[in-house]
Design goal:
This protein is mainly alpha-helical. It contains six helices and two strands; from the N terminus they run H-H-E-E-H-H-H-H. 20% of the residues are buried.
Length: 133
């Protein structure tokens, strides 16, 4: 399987500005694209939850989210609902997943966005970077 990653000047501008992390606009867009299987097996959109709810989740779970990784963590919080609901069945496990992902000692801090870009590339979904600058 061959992968073609297309780079643009707008992506370079985005990366210069956000240092390889999600911005609020990009996280919102990525979350809006998430789908999951409902309990009856139907495909449905993931319901976007508020920043205030996420801040409360962080506080209740005593999480330390680095400033630059805040929207990476917000994206992962939603991804846990979309992709890992069986494995991460409660807030404690979701918090641990987010923490271990954004603070992975053998990975670069920008891996969350890199994985998202790879997924979009593999699915043939373009990211119009100029919308997120």
């Amino acid at each position: 399987m061959e992968t073609y990653m297309y780079y643009s000047e707008e992506e370079d501008i985005y990366n210069d500005r956000y240092k390889g992390h999600f911005s609020k606009k990009l996280a919102d867009w990525a979350i809006s694209r998430m789908i999951k299987k409902s309990s009856d097996g139907k495909i449905e959109s993931v319901k976007k939850r508020s920043i205030e709810d996420f801040d409360l989740f962080i506080k209740e779970n005593n999480m330390k989210v680095p400033y630059e990784s805040y929207y990476d963590a917000y994206y992962l919080w939603h991804m846990a609902d979309a992709d890992y609901r069986k494995a991460l069945e409660d807030a404690k496990h979701i918090a641990a997943f987010i923490d271990e992902t954004i603070n992975d000692p053998d990975c670069v801090p920008t891996a969350v966005l890199a994985c998202f870009k790879a997924k979009m590339n593999e699915c043939g979904i373009p990211i119009y970077w100029e919308k997120f600058i």
